[in-house]
């Protein structure tokens, strides 16, 4: 027997289930956008997940990766520092902060512009990390 509403509070269960799955759906949509190089949209989707689920470190890592792809090093650093504060052994956050530290600070406009003096090795490592991270799905699958 399946109930359509909670017997204690009357909440429609189907709507509640959809609400619980919504962050995973947004995360997966963000991954799709990132795989297609649409990093601004991916960043916005990951930021929404982080807003609703502030302890979701996987979403914070994804947000940081999208920010890094857009050359928003300050926001990427902020997200990875938060991740490392919560999970000091997080390998992705450690690698991301190392990549940011290896890049010279930006002195130009806030628009996403590639760092002119970034080394080919650093660029290759960033591309590899993006490919690894954005090539997977969130553990929870939306219905």
Q: Mind telling me the CATH superfamily name?
A: Tetratricopeptide repeat domain
First CA to last CA: what distance? 20 Å
CATH fold-level topology:
Serine Threonine Protein Phosphatase 5, Tetratricopeptide repeat
- Rg over C-alpha atoms, rounded to the nearest angstrom: 18 Å
Determine the number of helices (DSSP H or I, runs of at least 4 residues): 6
Give the topology string: H per helix, E per strand. HHHHHH
Mean pLDDT: 80
Strand content: under 5%
Helix content: 55-70%
Number of strands: 0
List low-confidence stretches.
107-124
- Label the overall shape: elongated
What's the number of domains?
1
CATH architecture: Alpha Horseshoe
Summarize the biggest pleated sheet. none
The CATH class turns out to be Mainly Alpha
Structural class: mainly alpha
What is the gist of this entry?
The protein contains six helices and no strands. It has helices at 13-35, 39-52, 57-69, 73-86, 91-102, 120-134.
Topology of this protein?
Elements (H helix, E strand, L loop, with lengths): L12 H23 L3 H14 L4 H13 L3 H14 L4 H12 L17 H15 L9
Describe the structure.
The structure is a single chain. The protein has 143 residues and is an all-alpha fold. 64% of the residues lie in helices and 0% in strands. It has a single domain, classed as Tetratricopeptide repeat domain (Serine Threonine Protein Phosphatase 5, Tetratricopeptide repeat). The chain has helices spanning 13-35, 39-52, 57-69, 73-86, 91-102, 120-134. α3 (57-69) runs antiparallel to α4 (73-86), α3 (57-69) packs parallel to α5 (91-102) and α4 (73-86) packs antiparallel against α5 (91-102). 27% of the residues are buried. The model is unreliable at 107-124 (pLDDT under 50). InterPro entries: TPR-like_helical_dom_sf. Residues 95-143 are annotated as: Disordered. Residues 125-143 have a biased composition (Basic residues).
């Amino acid at each position: 027997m399946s109930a359509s509403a909670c017997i204690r509070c009357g909440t429609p269960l189907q709507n509640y289930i959809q609400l619980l799955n919504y962050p995973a759906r947004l995360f997966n949509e963000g991954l799709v956008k990132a795989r297609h190089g649409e990093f601004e949209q991916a960043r916005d989707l990951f930021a929404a997940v982080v807003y609703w689920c502030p302890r979701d470190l996987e979403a914070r890592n994804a947000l940081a990766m999208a920010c890094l792809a857009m050359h928003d090093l300050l926001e990427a650093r902020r997200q990875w520092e938060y991740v490392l504060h919560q999970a000091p052994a997080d390998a992705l956050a450690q690698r991301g902060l190392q990549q940011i530290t290896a890049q010279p600070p930006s002195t130009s406009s806030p628009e996403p512009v590639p760092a002119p003096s970034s080394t080919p090795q650093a660029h290759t490592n960033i591309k590899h990390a993006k490919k690894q991270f954005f090539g997977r799905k969130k553990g929870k699958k939306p219905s």
